[in-house]
Amino acid sequence: MEYTVQKLGKIAGVSPRTLRYYDEMGILKPARINSSGYRIYGQEEVDQLQQILFYRELGIKLEVIKKLITSPSFDATQALRTHRSQLLDKRAQLDQLIANVEKTISTKEGTMTMSDQEKFEGFKQKLIDDNEQTYGKEIRDKYGDETVNKSNAKVKNMSQAQHDEVTRLAQEITDKLAEAYQQGDPSSALAQEVAELHKQWLMFYWNEYSKEAHAGLAQMYVDDERFTAYYDKEQPGTAEFLRDAINIFTGMRK
Questions:
Q1: d(CA 53, CA 88)
Q2: CA nearest 186: which of 103, 142, 252, 122?
Q3: With CB atoms 3.0 to 4.6 Å apart as the test, which of 44, 71, 201, 228 could cross-link to 169 if both were Cys?
Q4: Is the whole-model pTM more than 0.85?
């Protein structure tokens, strides 16, 4: 069966403008253009749009999706299995948060008690699951399962005071990094303070510190476009600046 932009948009729940944008960026081309100049989509394009929407639901950026589905090694069936697994993980996260809310309601009504640790279990587990989903493979390949599992356990055992402090540190790093970047010198006192703060932030997640691992993570911020996009969202080049500052801080500058 074939569809125009209007008809495909209607059955898929996306706007015709979105489909045209996907065409322009090369992520979803129509099967053909008819004699009247209308985009026409066939079964292959319908299946590809489904894949795109699955990835979008999982929060993956369009630029990354394009690389995935246009890769010669892309396996649609395997991708669907991965989608299923990730969606089941997402459902498990929601189930845990719902259970946490129900426990809290029962506590407020006086029918049960709930420790302060329990109040935040759902949120901490969601943080772990989100990180695993987004960066898990790369981090595990780089540092190994044992290191990542220990880090996850440390997050789960984090107290509310520790959680508040690591959140404050993250914001301080963001603010001071932006200021240091404007100065333009990764060896400046402010940039080196940022590197020290970044080390302090890491130690809430890592069981032990090494200069090599710190520098390796900083390099990943540049090599992996997802990390780069996070640090460069306000000012392009920030990820590289942070990498350079950490390399100087750790003595790993080449």
A1: 16
A2: 252
A3: 201
A4: no
d(CA 158, CA 27): 42
Which residue has 């426990």 as its token pair?
Answer: 103
- Look at domain 159-254 and name its CATH class: mainly alpha
User: What residue spans of the chain are helical by DSSP H?
Assistant: 5-12, 16-24, 43-57, 62-69, 76-109, 116-119, 121-143, 145-156, 160-183, 189-202, 211-223, 225-231, 238-250
Sequence spans of domains, the chain = 3-69, 77-153, 159-254
Round to the nearest angstrom and report the end-to-end CA distance of the chain: 58
Question: In this structure, which topology does domain 3-69 adopt according to CATH?
Answer: Multidrug-efflux Transporter Regulator; Chain: A; Domain 2 (1.10.1660)
- Phi, psi dihedrals of residue 3, rounded to the nearest 5°: -135, 145
Q: What are phi and psi of 115, to 5 degrees?
A: -75, 160
Task: List the chain pLDDT tens, one digit each, 254 residues.
Answer: 899 999 999 999 999 999 999 999 999 999 999 999 999 999 999 999 999 998 888 778 888 889 888 888 888 888 878 778 777 777 766 666 676 667 667 767 777 665 555 545 555 566 666 666 666 676 677 667 777 777 777 777 777 788 788 889 999 999 999 999 999 999 999 999 999 999 999 998 888 899 998 999 899 889 888 788 888 888 899 999 999 999 999 998 75
CA-to-CA distance for 240 and 19, rounded, in angstroms? 34
The reply to whether domains 3-69 and 159-254 share a CATH topology is: no
